[in-house]
Amino acid sequence: MAEVDYGHFVDWDQMGDLAKSGGPSKLDCKDPRELKQLARQGYWSKNHKLRAQVYQQLIKAIPCRTVTPDAEVYRDIVDSVAGKRAPASIPLPEFVDGSPVPKYCLKADGVGAAHKIMSCVASQFPDISHCPALPAMTALLLHFSPDEAQCFEHVCRLLACNEPGRRMLDQTFLAYESSCMTFGDLANKYCPTAHKLIVATAQDVLEVYSDWMHWVLGDLPFSHVARVLDVFLVEGYKVLYRVALALLKFYRKQKAGQQQPSGQDTSGVRGNIQAFVQGIGSCVSPDKLLEKAFAIRLFSRKEITLLQLTNEKSLQQKGITVKQRRFYSHCEGHEPTLLIIKTTDAEVCGAFLSTDWDERKRGGNKLSFFGTGECFVFRLKPEMERYEWVVIRHPELASAIQAKNDEPSEEETPAQPQNSDTNTLPAAESRADPTDRLSPFLSARHFHLNSRNTSMFMAGNFDSIIVGGGDGNALYIDAELNHGRTGRCTTFDNPPLCTETFQISLLEVWGFQDAMSSS
C-alpha cells in the first residue's frame, strides 16, 4: 500500500476521500513559475505519496543556516529530551503560547509524536520566543513524513530559513504582533466590507485579527489546510495572508443580511469566526477557498514586507516586543534572582529578590506579596545606591522574636511576639555595632510590625510585576515588560530608582542556585 511509507501517523478512517490515492504519481518540474501553477491547481493533492515526496523536495531546497538540526540530531537527543514520559504528556514549549496540537486526522500516537518533536525543536532553537503556529505545522508535516526524525528535520528547516526577504514561520512576539497589525491593514484595504463588519460588531478589532494565523493553521479542516500547505511551501508567507483574507470575505458573505449587534463582546465575534472556519467544509471547497484567495488583485510580497517592517518599527518605538509570561517561566525554580533594568534613557536599576517567583501562585489570581527581608532595590546609573528593607535600617520599627537563653526552647514552647520595649533594638546601637544588625534572612513573620506595608517585598501576576509596596512601589513593570514606574515605597523607604515613568530598553534576570543544595 502506497501510504505505508508516508502515512504511519495517519488515521485513514478519518481521511474520507483523501484516503483514496489518485492523480499523477510523479512530478518532473524545475521551472519555479510552472511549479507555482501546479501547486495552485492541486497537481499533487490527490496522491498522498507524491505529495509527501514533493514536500520533501521543496523543504530540502529551502536555504538554511549553516548548522541546521537534521534527522540524526533528533535520534541522538530524543531520549534525553523526552525521557520516559508518555509522549502526549510532554508539555508543549512555552513559545507556542497555549496553542494545542490540531488532530488533523492523526492517530493518538501521532499527536504524541508532535509533542516529542516540538520538545526537541525547543532544545535546538533557544532563540525562539513566540511561535504559536508550530503545533499546526508539525502536525501537518507528520502526515507526510516517514518517521518522527524526518518530520523534525522538516520543521527545523522551516525555522532555520535564512533566505533574505523570505519568511516561513514567525518566531518572536514582535514578528507575530506586527503580522496581526499587517493583517488588519490588508483587511482594511482589500476586504473593506468585511473589515467594516468587524469594526461594527467587535469592541476590539485588533484582538479579533490576532487570531488570523490560527484561522489558517489551527481552525481550517485538514482537507483545506493541506491545500494551503501545497502553495505555502512554494510561495511562502503571503499565502497565509491571502487565505485568511479569503476566510474573512466568506465570513462576511455568510453574515450578509443578518442583523448584527454592534459593539458586542470581542470574544463572541472571535468565537463566531472560529466556528465558521472550522465548519467551512460544508459550504466552501478547498479549491474554492484558494480561488478566492488568489483573486485578490495588486497583492504583492513587497507590499506585505513594507507593512510588516513599518508595524514592527511602530511596536518597537512603543516598546512592545515580548510577552511577560515568559518572565515567570524563566525565573521559576531559581532562588534568589537578580532583576536588572536598563531604560531608554540609559538609566540602570533593579532588585535583589529572595524568593522563587513560583510563590506568587499561592495567592491564586489575587495579587499578593511574598518574599523576605533579604530583598533590596538598587540603582547603578547614573549613580550607585542600595536600599535595604526598612526594618534592617530602622530596627525600632519592629520587635525581633529572639529566644533568650533562659526561655524554653522552640520545641517546648512556640515563640510568641514580644511587645516589651526591652526587646526593641535601638537604632543607634545597631548602627554602632554591625554584629547587632538584624539578619536580612529573617522573614516578615519573625517581626511584630506596626504596619504590613513594611513587609511588601515582591508580587506578580499576568498584569504586572511589583517590587516593594506601601504608599507606592519601588518598581512596577507592566504585563508586556515594556513600561514601568518607580517611586518611594514603605518597604524600602527608597527614592525613585530612575525617571519615575520609564520605558524598558533591556531587562535581564539572573538566577542563583545554592551549590550545596544542588550537589
Automatic annotation (TrEMBL):
<comment type="function">
    <text>May act as a GTPase-activating protein for Rab family protein(s). Involved in neuronal projections development, probably through a negative modulation of ARF6 function. Involved in the regulation of synaptic vesicle trafficking.</text>
</comment>
<feature type="domain" description="TLDc">
    <location>
        <begin position="288"/>
        <end position="513"/>
    </location>
</feature>
<keyword id="KW-0968">Cytoplasmic vesicle</keyword>
<dbReference type="InterPro" id="IPR006571">
    <property type="entry name" value="TLDc_dom"/>
</dbReference>
<comment type="subunit">
    <text>Interacts with ARF6.</text>
</comment>
<dbReference type="GO" id="GO:0012505">
    <property type="term" value="C:endomembrane system"/>
</dbReference>
<dbReference type="Pfam" id="PF07534">
    <property type="entry name" value="TLD"/>
</dbReference>
<dbReference type="Pfam" id="PF00566">
    <property type="entry name" value="RabGAP-TBC"/>
</dbReference>
<keyword id="KW-0770">Synapse</keyword>
<keyword id="KW-0472">Membrane</keyword>
<dbReference type="GO" id="GO:0045202">
    <property type="term" value="C:synapse"/>
</dbReference>
<dbReference type="InterPro" id="IPR035969">
    <property type="entry name" value="Rab-GAP_TBC_sf"/>
</dbReference>
<feature type="region of interest" description="Disordered">
    <location>
        <begin position="404"/>
        <end position="434"/>
    </location>
</feature>
<dbReference type="InterPro" id="IPR000195">
    <property type="entry name" value="Rab-GAP-TBC_dom"/>
</dbReference>
<dbReference type="GO" id="GO:0030659">
    <property type="term" value="C:cytoplasmic vesicle membrane"/>
</dbReference>
<protein>
    <recommendedName>
        <fullName>TBC1 domain family member 24</fullName>
    </recommendedName>
</protein>
<feature type="compositionally biased region" description="Polar residues">
    <location>
        <begin position="415"/>
        <end position="425"/>
    </location>
</feature>
